[in-house]
Amino acid sequence: MKRREIVKVLGLGVAAAGLAACTEEKKTVAADCAQPAASAAPEKPETIEWKMVTTWPKNFPGLGTGANDLADLIDKMSGGRIKVKVYGAKELVGALEIFDAVSRGTAEMGHGAAYYWKGKTRAAQFFAAVPFGLTAQEMNSWLYHGGGMELWEEVYAEFGLIPGAAGNTGVQMGGWFNREINGVEDLKGLKMRMPGLGGEVLKRAGGTPVLLPGGEIFTSLQSGAIDATEWVGPYNDLAFGLYKAAKYYYYPGWHEPGTTLECFINKEAFEKLPADLQVIVRNALRVANQDMLADFTAKNNEALQQLVNEHGVELRQFPDDVLKQIRALSDEVVAEEAAKDPMSQKVFESFVKFREQAIKWHAVSEQSYLNARTL
Amino acid sequence: MKRREIVKVLGLGVAAAGLAACTEEKKTVAADCAQPAASAAPEKPETIEWKMVTTWPKNFPGLGTGANDLADLIDKMSGGRIKVKVYGAKELVGALEIFDAVSRGTAEMGHGAAYYWKGKTRAAQFFAAVPFGLTAQEMNSWLYHGGGMELWEEVYAEFGLIPGAAGNTGVQMGGWFNREINGVEDLKGLKMRMPGLGGEVLKRAGGTPVLLPGGEIFTSLQSGAIDATEWVGPYNDLAFGLYKAAKYYYYPGWHEPGTTLECFINKEAFEKLPADLQVIVRNALRVANQDMLADFTAKNNEALQQLVNEHGVELRQFPDDVLKQIRALSDEVVAEEAAKDPMSQKVFESFVKFREQAIKWHAVSEQSYLNARTL
Fold first, then answer.
1. Which domains are seen in chain A, by residue range?
2. Alpha helix segments (H runs only) across chain B
3. Which of A128, A271, B293, B355 yields a CA-CA distance of 20 to 30 A from B142?
4. Which chain A residues are closer than 8 Å to B368 by Cβ?
5. B352 Cβ neighbours under 8 A, 6+ residues apart
6. Number of C-alpha atoms within 13 angstroms, CB side, residue B16?
């Protein structure tokens, strides 16, 4: 008989209540007393039922499916002791209401990206994506071994939430353009769907960042209401059919170089879990974090070939001069944003210090190697 | 009372034996019968005791400590149901005997790198490091979402082993040289400590690969017995003091661009585990895989600065022309090696196809972004 089956039969829900009686009356037959009755009417197994609310449409490729995989993994690692039911955006609460919903305990887990919560706590942005910031590998290193996770926990603590990285898209694409970008002056007046800090940088370059939900991007681009849009990368962009509405596919995605997805947990609910389940939940997030990047990498590999070979998409690299100028603007925007409150400044300083070292190390490792491979 | 404490009190070791009695005698008080006696003399909990043999000296930085972390994680995620005792090289069996030891069940787990087993199965090399092969991010994507893991399982199945990736060093350094490498002709006659396929490439370039265990590298380099050596990266190289024995620190590590460490498991022992513990063990490996890379990245960041700023180490990039020629030789060597048996050829074809796509995708994402950041 497997341990988890025994535990199911046991019905931990009544264990505490029954303990005294058993202890008092059956001290001499403690061993027998401790055994479950296999053929007795099965007690209802104690299953912890959790809800995970997400910012993604249910089953959204990569992101929504990543949330599903995470829930499934927690179920399997816990031997069914925790069942996490995943809700797509609007199924239980709206996409941008998940932070509050988990904070107040309406759901136990939330799956999104930290930059959505900048209105609540500006410092959150550093845990999702920063223009000219860290790559996926660097983010993980900063979070797990560079002090980043401790800062993230500090930022979310006041909302009664425990944060965790739960996926990464890798370097995203620069976006779909119906205008050539030959110099930074071509960004002037450019109406581009670009949220967050990237949008701020675009504004500083003279462009007009436009906020649009995913579902409205295609028609806005096709109608000319916007001149350009960023979305994610080949895999998601192909699914949206964006290649049908734009001429050029620019790279690299300087504005989101390693976007970290998150899963935050209601602290009170988490702390009620037995120690082993706490470890299981935390580490399920870490598996999900790695797995989503591996998935995106494989899917982007294939989707890029499809876009180029089957749909004749024209890839364009932003000119060096444009990248240099955008980088300078990005550094300004990010530093100014950080200076707006002490917590943001604290996170920014840790982030920037880590980036400085990572740039030097990756110049002689990842970057140098990737270049050597394509000489 | 926490669930795992209840389970400990229960003493699963006697659960099966005691089951019948409890069922027969106490049907009417099934609920009471099912409760543990908290203050009874604690039964010995059923703990599965496993051994992990490793190719590393006990607690070796990054690699040995990674094995320790993995064992600890399995313990915690399983609520103490599996205890894995880690043995350094030679403590139970020699470093290169671990594959056989786990295969025959002397130990349940082995922690090493797959290229050590090329004498047993040539195809294993593709799961560790291939000259001009995949980076860490690409390896994970190939393994988890590109068919690599299924091939690895096929290769190890005949030895009764289940493989798993359990860490990654990231791109390594090219090595420590007492001779300048200005052209490929400078490799002629070069005596360099370089194992595996990298060594074969060096030989084809006219050099002399030398096999030396870690402990003999420093003195051999200092005495001039060798002209150069590769080891790992700044973190491990600093610990070995190699900067004291060589003039130049070359990059990138074309021969090991994302070395995957492995943890293989005795299949029979694994299959005896209950389903949830199987999932826990497999996913503990995945956490370890990601965590070691994050750890190495952070440690290499710091160690590189120390080497350059405190020890005045001179960093040198291999000239483009050298890299191009070594790449051509690498491709020859790897293809010839693969052609020696059908399984190697099968793995090689999957690997090379994945690399071809990854090069194209990373050219417009990781590579382009890293370059944009240092323009």
1. 1-45 (no CATH), 48-170+258-297 (3.40.190.170)
2. 3-10, 15-25, 30-33, 63-77, 98-103, 136-145, 148-157, 196-204, 214-223, 234-240, 267-272, 275-305, 320-338, 342-364, 366-373
3. A128
4. 171, 251-252, 317
5. none
6. 5
Tens digits of residue pLDDT in B93-139: 999 999 999 999 999 999 999 999 999 999 999 999 999 999 999 99
CA distance A160 to chain B (A): 23
Q: DSSP letters along B279-337, please? A: HHHHHHHHHHHHHHHHHHHHHHHHHHHIIIIIT--EEEEPPHHHHHHHHHHHHHHHHHH
Q: How far away is chain B from the Cα of A94, in angstroms, using its nearest Cα? A: 32
Consecutive H or E run containing B260? strand B260-266
- Percentage of residues in chain A having pLDDT higher than 90: 85
Token digits of residue B108: 């349940």
| Residues 117-136 of chain B whose Cβ lies under 8 A from any Cβ of chain A | 132, 135-136
CA distance A104 to chain B (A): 25
B297 and A140: CB-CB below 8 Å? yes
Reported ipTM exceeds the 0.90 cut: no
Interval B232-262: pLDDT, tens: 999 999 999 999 999 999 999 999 999 999 9
